[in-house]
């Protein structure tokens, strides 16, 4: 490293130095103690007694992974995810100047069953890992994952993956 590269007059070094000084001042100010008038304390927050039954509040007939998954991703949650995904896509399409050839223009609202398939594919992709998303839909025998192609097309899965990232 050249000494010229990191001179004391380097403005980026000064910025870093200034930031750390202000952090120290803020930390010192946070350490200042003050007296509390114990006669005039604010009332404590109300205590709500717990009246529920602790533990799992659903009946489990078996112990299959899908049953456990459905405890957390029940019909209400999956329906909410579907409606919010559709709402987000609609807002995104309205607020952005998209070209007529944009894939986002071809968005079709999804329902709960499609969201369940999407979540299943995401879980399967965690088990069968590939370095590139497109390899899951590859036609090459060594890369192919035929089951995923039967569940959802590559274009549809890309819509679900890409809509949120357009917002950034």
The gist of it:
With 168 residues, the chain is mainly α. The chain has helices at 11-30, 65-72, 75-95, 112-127, 146-151, 154-166.
What does this structure look like?
Residues 64-155 form the PiggyBac transposable element-derived protein domain. Pfam families: DDE_Tnp_1_7. It comes from Araneus ventricosus. Residues 1-26 have a biased composition (Acidic residues). This is PiggyBac transposable element-derived protein domain-containing protein. By secondary structure, this protein is mainly alpha-helical. It has a domain at 64-163. Helix content is 50%, strand content 0%. It is built from six helices and no strands. It has helices at 11-30, 65-72, 75-95, 112-127, 146-151, 154-166. Helix 3 (75-95) packs across helix 4 and helix 3 (75-95) packs across helix 6 (154-166). The radius of gyration is 27 Å and the shape is extended. Residues 1-20 and 163-168 have low confidence and may be disordered.
């Amino acid at each position: 490293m050249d000494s010229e590269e990191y001179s004391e007059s380097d403005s980026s070094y000064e910025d870093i130095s200034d930031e750390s000084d202000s952090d120290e001042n803020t930390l010192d100010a946070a350490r200042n103690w003050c007296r509390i008038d114990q006669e005039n304390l604010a009332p404590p927050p109300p205590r709500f007694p717990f009246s529920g039954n602790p533990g799992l509040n659903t009946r489990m007939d078996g112990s299959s992974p899908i049953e456990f998954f459905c405890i957390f991703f029940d019909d209400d949650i999956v329906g909410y995810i579907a409606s919010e995904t559709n709402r987000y896509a609609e807002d995104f399409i309205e607020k952005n100047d998209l070209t007529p050839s944009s894939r986002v223009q071809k968005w079709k609202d999804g329902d709960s069953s499609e969201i369940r398939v999407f979540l299943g594919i995401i879980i399967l992709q965690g088990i069968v890992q590939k370095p590139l998303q497109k390899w899951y839909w590859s036609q090459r025998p060594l890369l192919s994952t035929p089951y995923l192609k039967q569940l959802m097309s590559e274009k549809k899965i890309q819509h679900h993956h890409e809509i949120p990232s357009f917002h950034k």
